[in-house]
Amino acid sequence: MTPTASSVPRAAWNRIGDALGDFFRDLTTSSPARFAILVFISLILIFTALLSLPIASADRTVTPIADALFTAVSAVCVTGLATVDMSTHWSFFGEALIFLAANIGGLGALTLASVLGLVVSRRLGLRAKLIAAGDTNPLRSHGGPVNESQTVRLGEIGQLLRIVALSTVIIEAAVAILLYPSIVIAGHSWLESLWLAPLYAVMSFTNTGFSFNPGGLEAFQYDYYFLTVLMASVFLGSIGFPVIYALSKQLLTPRRWNLHVKLTLITTVILFFVGSGAFLALEFLNPGTFGTRDAWDTTFQAFFLSAMTRSGGFSVVDIGELNGSSLLVGSMLMFVGGGSASTAGGIKVTTLAVLALAVWSEARGRASVEAFGRRIPSDVQRVSVAVLAWGATIVALATIVIAQITLAPVDKVLFDVISGFATVGLSTGLTEDLPDPAVYVMAVTIFMGRVGTVTLAAAVAASSRSQLYSLPVERPIVG
Fold first, then answer.
1. Which of 381, 391, 389, 393 is nearest to 353 (CA)?
2. This prediction's pTM
3. In the chain, domain spans
4. Where would you find the membrane-spanning parts of this chain (predicted)?
């Protein structure tokens, strides 16, 4: 029987559809890292187009493409840096878009897609578990086998996703309720506060740090209750969903916490107090920051600044007035960032902990790296070194390029670049005045920092290959 004219195109379209389906199935299972990058790029382009619309700006004009793109990148990558005045430029529609983008970016695009699929189908297939696993543990993102035990096992991904969705809704709602009275007391109407409270809840829990009030947090600088709630929300967002998941099951039995939870919490607390002490010592005589405040306020603001440099991005003092030594301390804290699989950026606290333990083990002449009665495998140590090297390389290149374009002081350029790479959002004032070429460089830096150095490396690399031979050993001289 001779095929009709209509059946031939239909068959061709079916073959194309099957081919596309096979392509995306292979992409999501063989390389979740590449799929993650594709999803993030798609989200950024969508939000760029929406933020460019006249309805998104307060004066109903088209936002320049550089500003719309940078805002989309900053929101989706939960960074908080801005090239426009966030308190006056955007309309309610624009703020709602940023609210949505920050929530999507904070959860992780792949985690959100898996959560939605779980809600709709009430079950999670193997492919969806593999996709979500790439978000919950970067070591899985290369698409090959993972030999050692993981923080969250593949069979627990469905339960973890439920915890992620539930904890996000509960924490953001609770933070919004707690912030509402302070926003009303600050002079906003009860109706306006109904929008600002959840907006600040999302900006803090996702560690985005956008402030939609004129003057930023100036109206709340002496409201210690408001600032404490913000710090608590930032902390919960920065420790990571695997830690929240573990604590939800074993909160009262710390001896049963796994190594990842212990390293994350201990390193986070240590950096919080060390950073606070450093800022207190370096800034208490600076009239531009803490020098005019009393002892209690200076101490509190030092703790607040230490918490925000870990990825929160909110600020009470003018960052541009910090001493050069404080800018360096802040850069170091931002570069480390928060916990793995969290809304925070940076190379992550567990990376720092593993590197520190490796150095300590080497100094003591131990053949293996151990902590809390557990051995840390060599592949985790190699990934930690790779993350540090990739992060330092990205920051160095971006700093050189932007410093050359702007001819600005290198310490301020370095601070803003690390703030972008680590998705923090603090700025010395440099970012808002960047020329368009530097804006694009900063946007790429933010994207690379949020997607993750491990994910970028895995996406560029080919699929795992087995090597059935080994070369002769020769030891170069190092050190």
1. 381
2. 0.84
3. 32-143+151-458
4. 33-53, 65-84, 96-120, 163-186, 224-247, 259-282, 332-360, 383-407, 438-462
